[in-house]
Queue: 3 jobs
Job 1
Amino acid sequence: MTGKELREKYINFFVSKEHKQISGKSLIPENDPTVLFTTAGMHPLVPYLLGEEHPAGKRLVDFQRCIRTGDIDSVGDATHLTFFEMLGNWSLGDYFKKEALSWSYEFLTSKEWLGINKEKLSVTVFEGEESTGVPPDTEAKEIWKSLGIPEERIYMLPREDNWWGPAGETGPCGPDSEMFIDTGKDACNPACRPGCPCGKYIEIWNDVFMQYNKQKDGSYEKMTRKCVDTGMGLERTVTILIGKKSVYDTEFFIPIIKKIEQASGYTYGTNQDKDISVRIIADHIKTSVFILGDENEIKPSNIGQGYILRRIIRRAIRHGRKLGTSGAFLSIPASAVIEMYKDVYPQLLEKNDFILKELEIEEERFISTLAKGEAEFEKMVPNILKGKDKIIPGRLAFRLYDTYGFPIEITQELAAEHSLAVDRNGFDEAFKKHQELSKMGADKVFKGGLADSSEITTKYHTATHLLHTALRMVLGEHVKQKGSNITSERLRFDFSHELPMTPEEIKKVEDIVNKQIETDHPVTMEVMTLEVAKEQGAIAFFESKYEEKVKVYSVGNFSKEVCGGPHVDRTGMIGKFKITKEQSSSAGVRRIRAEIA
Ligand code: SER
């Protein structure tokens, strides 16, 4: 079984159950300011899970690239990854538990599909919770029993195990039922069960029954329209199907590791510590390539996604040094990633030069100060070891950041290698004092839930359409959307255009947008084929490979654009529009930030 085969089987299976295949989306969630990256297959579908109509219908299937950095410190062991692909199928107010679980079972065990031995399957379901009043999921349990899973392999577990979501701080969530494969390893103790981290049971699929919408205040609002969200980890499932213990011993990493060996001269498998470094580099370089190759242009920076990107590139470089690399080397494994994924993700090939160039710039920038920073760090160590707290003061950690570009996480990692801690609060204080944006920017993104901010982000979304059309009127039809990102504080819009905009042009664009807002146009939506949408003159830049039908949003007779929504009902709701910044984003691409008040 290969990744390619599993993707195909999964899609074909659900298409045979009347699902429509849709395209995976950007790694940068467009309408969710509560997180930096798309963390699950359901993430881009949040508006539809909450009630928005999806143009492809009520049964969907796709594969989605995801990034999770929460476990970044565990990367390097056999299983943790920051980048992975998730296969998923959805019911948007259509089928519920019975169909979802039966199909999961059929796909896993039928000879025609994955043909997994039934005896090796265990499942878990939600045991219920008094505090939220959610009852035990006896319905799911009975369904599993009727499918032939004996009671002793059905585990009723609490929230930590059997509740999923929301993807951000707020949004759709619910009890889930997870499917595990028994690897045949001995139980670590008599209480060992699915969910135990010892490695006996590996989770491969999760069916979530989305019945609740978590609110900003922490409460759960019942949704009348129930949905199903399922997710199967691609890399993990292939690894187990082919009987490997580590995902790093599979097609998903072998070509990258070969290139790391070539670049460093180290042979994988000969030294435990160095193997960890190889795996960290392999994981981080893959994630970096996918971030740099995303349709939303992200570069290493000190804020938001750019900061995560910088952090993982720099961490990879540092581990490269442990293997004996001296100069820039990341473009070698990066090319392997592009080669491995170019058929499934052609955008990586299109952005090949950009990806390699940005990696090289960041590498050069960091390498020149890395050795000095490490020397500086080593100088600090003896004194700190003498002290009784064994803590690196915040101001010293800040100096490493400020002078040598060490992300605080790298300082923490270096410190841990010497069994030292870092005064993180002290660092943050020093940081704020210097009014650096870095982490503050990232933290800000995490604050303020989706439910709370959805109204304002919807306004920004409609404002983005107005801006797009206004730019095309003022600058010309060559203007095309290159990226869009919305938080509850501002919109950011990247578009193709060579020259900086003049103050007059900016003013003109603002005036046009504000005029449309004052006119209080109705915003309407129609579902049609992409062909018809284009015939009608709708702007459509992010074309997807699979959707036959698309949603087209019209703002009066001013703008018409293919888009998933959601939007405000009338433009008058938006408020006053102001461009706060216009700058270069990359060659031939300008970036606008704008606010509404
Ligand atoms: N959202 C769920 C998960 O990530 C199922 O797709 O596991």
Job 2
Amino acid sequence: MVILDGKTLAKKIRLSIKKEVNQFKEKGIIPGLAFILVGDNPASQVYVNMKTKACEEVGIYSINHRMPKEINEKELVDVIKMLNDNPMVHGILVQLPLPEHIDEEKIIEAIDYKKDIDGFHPYNMGRLARGNPLFSSCTPLGIMKLLEKYSIDVKGKDVVMVGAGNITGKPMALMLTNAGATVQICHIHTRNLKEKTKVADILISAVGKPGLIKEDMVKEGAVVIDVGISRVEGKVVGDIDFENVSQKVSHITPVPGGVGPMTIAMLLYNTLQSVKLKEQ
Ligand code: GUN
């Protein structure tokens, strides 16, 4: 059994990004990323802090816009418009989730798709769906890089994606389909989940429900990817019952240290892509 070490790969990627960032700086171009955080969701605060730190480490200049949860849609759109027009800003990241009274779709569509380093804008989702991506969502992109690193060819494989969200499940299914996998997406309404997951060559779970994927739901020798991040009794855990599932698989990602660090590395990667798009 091989543990897919996202932490080490992410570190390597960050180092190579740092070099490229320095090359841009030598030419007088400073890569810039703007974060928008609305409200005081503790998990979102942790994520934005981690991403800000990662930017600092590779030399990407970051701006943080923190706004109270009472802000209205127009005020938020105005900030985005200002960042769209700011030539120092190559990427705009609005941390999700947003407060209930704000229409997430409207906000995402307000971002210039050329600065949409999250890959959430319908233009970028559409490009991915057509097999011609510009910016793609960081978590699935990181998973593709991790599979590549360990020479896990997805072509012709049966993949089951548990979770159909816009951030991971849907773009993941598109990337894998583009790469020649046969993909099934399962979600909250899926009947007999076990029947589906049991036949997967590659099983990916992005639900956020600790212990969802048990040993008897996984095929012998499968590749298992855990995108879940939950906190149980002060410990960070994924969706997969790691202790038991790891006994029968060929490859598995740990939580923490698997997909999480890859997501952040891909955010930096996308920001650098945006710089290249604009400046080269
Ligand atoms: N919330 C959870 N994951 C993400 C992400 O990758 N990007 C943003 N902007 N918000 C998120």
Job 3
Amino acid sequence: MPTKKTVRTLSKKTTEHEFYTSIPKGYRVGRTKYIIIMGSVMSGVGKGTFSASLGNLLTTLHGFKVSPIKFDGYLNYDAGTLNPYRHGEVFVLDDGTECDLDLGSYERMIKKGLTKSSYLTGGKIFKDLIDKERAGKFLGRDVQFIPHVTGEIKGFLRKLAVESDADIVMVEVGGTIGDIENAYFIEAMRELAYEEGKENVCFVNVTYIIEPKSLGEQKSKAAQLGIRNLMSLGIQPNLIVCRSHNPIREKIKEKISIYSNVPVERVIGLSNMESIYHIPLNLMQKGVDKSIMEILNLKSRKNGSKEFDSWVKLTKMIESAKKTVEVGITGKYTEVHDSYISILKALEHSAPYEDAKVNVRWVETSKITVKNVSEKLKGLDGIIVPGGFGSRGAEGKIECIRYAREHDIPYFGLCLGFQMAVIEYARHICGMKKANSTEIDSNCKQDVICILPEQEEIEELGGTMRLGGHDVVVKKGTQAYKLYGKGLVRERFRHRFNVNTTCIETLEKHGMVFSGMAPKKRIMQILELPKNRFHIGVQFHPEFTSRPLEPNPLYLGFIRAMLDKKRR
Ligand code: GLN
């Protein structure tokens, strides 16, 4: 077993032997434990949800400081240039990192305030490594997958451990075992366990038990082969989580156990549940926390926890919610619902506080016109126009917003939805018939929405938008102020366009109130129409800061307004 001293020595002579491994200053082996979560059989089985729930349990019930990190195998530097309709939503952290939607689950379930240190892509590893090579950091040496790429990865995890002073670094490896994309990452995890010692690293494999309709019974072979694949890479899983549609039968667990050398008590069944908030309690009932603490030789830091009780209370509120509201979301390629996951989560966790459940209806706007809008929006208690890019369906969205405004149906515009509400108002109330955004029509003369001045010179498209957390000054006496209950809030942004400052006066003169602004720049950040019960647009994404135990006040206000509309 390598001791603290061994690992330190290894880091010194990086160019002369095969033990290149970077150890950040202040790192102590054994101070931080690692939980490595990998998937087999197929992707999309809920590794992220499991990781977030496990992190929640270890934090809220046991008092550990858990720092989650996601590894994504693709060669993009970050998620900012990925298409959300292919890959799912791009989540934005306060520091402006554009990342995988799993970080949204971590922030909602484990802790706020994650940073770029919690997200690593293949692209970032290689870029950083090649930058170092160009700087001459490896002079005389052939730079190799092993030890340099794997060393870079271990270094990144250890840096996170030191920076966040974590008791546990929880690593979710994106993709599936057997993918070329994550093979070097998995190798790095094997090395990490070798260097840190067995009692400091716990491997969890999340697998899937298939149940073909034609057979009507559960089959474990695919899972067995997946786990065997992992073992052939030199990794012995400590715990296996079997995801499935129906509860796992005992016989299946036994088969998996004998095949994988994992005791049957550590083969856990996790079938579909009512909500993600039910999973931490379920994991506790199945003893997952105890097993992990045993494997890592950790003792709980708490004896009962109010915070954990609040999570359990939330599940009860979800189960007992009596009212329902139906919200229409105008989404592009609406069949990929993960593209809007934070919005769905914000609605889902806000509604129970008002004793309600939210049903979502997707509204395809590319065919919406003045003539059919009332029919298309029939029965809806509220409308959301979410964030987006480009012109597709824009006119239909504007019709929806107009309909909502004229019929006092609660409207919530998020980023692009804020900009569309400005265009709608300019066209139909301020008499600017040709009003538009230069994103949609670059030659537009009445450009009420235009590019941010700070964005004009930018040419590269990756990571260059106005990103991350910014302060919003909320005007006293407005609906927004009433909802937030304070005059200064911090919200997260991801945009290039904004309200044209030359149009603000006209819009205001005609009754639009800009109730939230940037503190030092003339960037409008919240709009509202005081005569409507809820016609609010925000240039930011309140869904990125909404948390199950602390829903974003604007989401709560929107739910209340929908209930109010339904009552009358
Ligand atoms: N496309 C708009 C902009 O860049 C809105 C962005 C968004 O909705 N996130 O400003």
